[in-house]
Amino acid sequence: MKYKFIRLCVIFAAFLLAACRQDRDQPEELLRQQRLNAQLFLTLPQNPDEGIVKIAGELAEQNKLHGFIPDFIQNYGYAAWEHALKAEGAAAANWYVPLTGENSVNAFIHCVMAKGQIRFRLITPYNIARILESIPE
């Protein structure tokens, strides 16, 4: 009887250690996948415009500080850098970077580059609907 109890304790301990190991490995796998997704998000096409390089660099720096890109990808999709549109103004350059999901554009990152600074704004269908509702007829 004593040996059965010891065997049962050993088996229980083995299962407990295995479960703890899986819990510890899972976050590492999740972090690895998130880093990979962030790299994919920031991957630029060949010969990108200098403005796109600066925008992607600033997003990479912000991601290092705040780690927002994995959640951002989940909510809005990946940046389609090769389809970014540039609008030159007198005082600033405006960039519109589409965010794509499964064969659709989910949103845009609006980037304003002026006086050596980059400002970002997220444009979603919800934002556009609110803007259109606020315009008097």
Structural description of this entry:
This protein has helices at 2-41, 50-66, 69-76, 125-134; strands at 78-79, 85-88, 93-100, 105-114, 117-123. The longest helix has 40 residues, at 2-41. Strands 1, 2, 3, 4 and 5 form a five-stranded antiparallel beta sheet that branches. The protein is of the alpha+beta class and 137 residues long.
Structural class: alpha+beta
Radius of gyration: 24 Å
Whole-Å distance between the termini? 86 Å
Global shape: extended
Total strands: the figure is 5
State mean pLDDT (0 to 100 scale).
82
Largest sheet: 5 strands, antiparallel
H-E order: HHHEEEEEH
Beta strand %: 15-25%
The DSSP helix count reads: 4
Low-confidence stretches: none
Q: In a nutshell, what does this entry contain?
A:
This protein is an alpha+beta fold and 137 residues long.
What's the arrangement of secondary structure elements?
Layout: H1 2-41, H2 50-66, H3 69-76, E1 78-79, E2 85-88, E3 93-100, E4 105-114, E5 117-123, H4 125-134
Antiparallel strand pairs: 1-3, 2-3, 3-4, 4-5
Q: Can you give keywords for this protein?
A:
single chain, 137 residues, alpha+beta, 5-stranded antiparallel sheet, 4 helices, 23% strand, extended
